[in-house]
């Protein structure tokens, strides 16, 4: 399943009211995500979203309250999917150091996707405001990074130090790197970025 858009297939046959509501929510999120990624939040009118989703404006307002409310839900969905990919990559490793580097690589690979970059890193802070965007980021990828660094500090995998500022420094660096990667046409830039990040992380290890 793609991070942006996703499966909008509605199962055939009779559906309950709750099922219909869930299907409407799913298709609105998918179509809005696709349009926001393609054109940007400001350039997508509500009429285009409802037409693509095959629903009324009333249905959109009922489920999300406004275009901004729908966009907030789209951002949250993208952040959660990126966080899930980061967690899956990290959980596939047993060594704490490998878990951290695998998670960082998964974040960069996911966030460097132009669609994800447009929604999560460009329009997200601009539309939601920095404080709200940051709060949502804390609940997704940033939380996993903080947990990983905390575990590594507790086990001695990195030198003992305050984790909160370190997590924010690394998160900011990776967000900026993802923005750069999304504008790059060279596939080798992802490996180069991961290598540079690994060298930065290596400096955290005990002497």
UniProtKB/TrEMBL annotation:
Residues 1-22 are annotated as: Disordered. Residues 45-64 bind DNA. Signal peptide: none annotated. Keywords: DNA-binding, Transcription, Transcription regulation. PROSITE patterns: HTH_TETR_2. InterPro entries: Homeodomain-like_sf, HTH-type_TetR-like_transc_reg, HTH_TetR, Rv0078-like_C, Tet_transcr_reg_TetR-rel_C_sf. It holds the Pfam family TetR_N. Residues 22-82 form the HTH tetR-type domain. It comes from the Bacteria. The keyword Signal does not apply. This is TetR/AcrR family transcriptional regulator.
